[in-house]
Amino acid sequence: MKKADLSSLKGVFAGGDSVPIELKMQFDEFISKRGGKVTMQEGYGLTETVTVSCLIPNKNDKISSMGVPLPDMLYKIVDPDTEEDLPPGEEGEICIAGPTVMLEYYNNPEETENVLKVHSDGFKWVHTGDLGYMDGDGFFYFKGRIKRMIKSSGYSVFPTQIENIINMHRAVSLSCVIGTPDKYQIEKIKAFIVTEGRP
What we know:
The chain is built from 3 helices and 13 strands, in the order βαβββββαβββββαββ. Strands 5, 6, 7, 8 and 9 form a 5-stranded antiparallel β-sheet that branches. β1, α1 (21-33) and β2 form a beta-alpha-beta unit. It has helices at residues 21-33, 109-115, 159-167, and strands at 12-14, 40-45, 52-55, 68-69, 74-78, 92-97, 116-118, 124-134, 140-145, 150-152, 155-157, 172-182, 186-195. It is mainly β.
């Protein structure tokens, strides 16, 4: 694709997981140098909402955001323990309501009850199990999976934040950060790194 003319591109979308900032910048530069007028747009969705339900507008300057909810979709951030709505800037669980939300898990009422909850506003919300926050402009940010969060010495550590920093090093191709059991710190942080093969 190094010689490709990308001027006809109408949109480039990424999903499935957060794209490291450095990779997104490299990708956008690659498109631009070949005549493209668009940038990579990250989105957010899950099986329980059928498809993407939040998307970054094109030419957006909020680099680490997953965007704004699509029409008819509602997003909010709640305290995972109390389901209380949290104000902009505070991290909590991402919850989604709207017409694409599933009816239930097939033959699994217990899991359905854990994930689908009617809040005091009367809407049925999907509790995603993902941590994030909303900024003052209504843009949402993904921080990590609640189950993947590492508890170390009393601090909540998000593996993706560490991975993003490691991946910025020019000798790193890919990284994965996990927590390993530790009797003093509860969990220690361990990183697996794939190098580019250059110093």
